[in-house]
Amino acid sequence: MRTLHVPKWLVGLLLVALLATACQPAATPAPTQAPAPTEAPAATQAPVDDEITVAFSGPPLLDDFQIQLFNGLKDKADELGVKLIHIEHGNDPAKQASDIEDLLTQDIDALLIAAANADAVGPSIDKAVEKGIPVFSIDNAAASDKVLNHSGNDLYCIGYRSAEYLANAIGNEGKILHINGFAGMALVTWNDDGVNQYLSEHPEIEKVMTGYADWDPARAQAITEDVLAANADLKGIYVISEVMTGGVVQALKAQELTDKIKVISGGFAPESQTWLADGELIAAFEWSSYSGAQAQMQQIYDYLTTGAEVKPFSPWPVTVHQADGETYELECPIGDWQP
Predict the structure, then answer these.
(1) May I ask the CATH architecture of the domain 53-153+289-308?
(2) pLDDT tens digit string along 207-233?
């Protein structure tokens, strides 16, 4: 159930109305003749309230995606005059719970989270809502119906479309490897579900493994090497995020398989652009983390100041960049899927 949050502007208007009523003089008998009209007083605004404070509990700023996301939040907050408190949870659910506990003791107006674990963050969300603090999420969602809005990539659609793209690239038959992030993260689960849904519709494509590399390129490289050792006929690899793609590229390069195994990856940072230009990727899926984060900060601000209604999910657009230089917008959602 959504908790009612009274916007600051409405509180200000109510205070002005109460003060005006308290200071009004006692009524006097009506005069026998109306007094001469006087000039109407100029309209007055409600007093400006304290600045809005938004707390953000998010992952480490270790890759281009997260850096762009934070910069989008910060730039929009600065533009709006919002104070942004940022604490990195290190992808540790216990640390995130402790961080949020501390944030809730401060005078914050809204809590924004990127969940370290979709389920583990639930009790922290409950505590915020009990205190009357609205909760929003970004990038990695929480398994809670008390979050007002989630803003981020439709990783179900991206997983489905990536499997589709890779299948077409390898001739619609053969073996593929899927490299994903931390098991237990909502976006990772969505990505798994999207890939698996496509494969269930196309049994001629065999996924030999989903390797959870925890956003670590070294682990992605080790997983790739192990899979290659057991599957000499591997045809394609899909990597959810470019933060791990370097490890896959190194594994293929070491075995001179770059030209034989097709690789697609999420993200379009400078490294991905180089891999694309060098033929080490056949396609890169560009996120909209900067503009998506800006839109989320604007949405939080509008909710707090005007009571604007928010939708449960705000998906970000994704652009596909191909090795031949062509680009196109990814077609989403898949069916009626919602997080």
Answers:
(1) 3-Layer(aba) Sandwich (3.40)
(2) 999 999 999 999 999 999 999 999 999
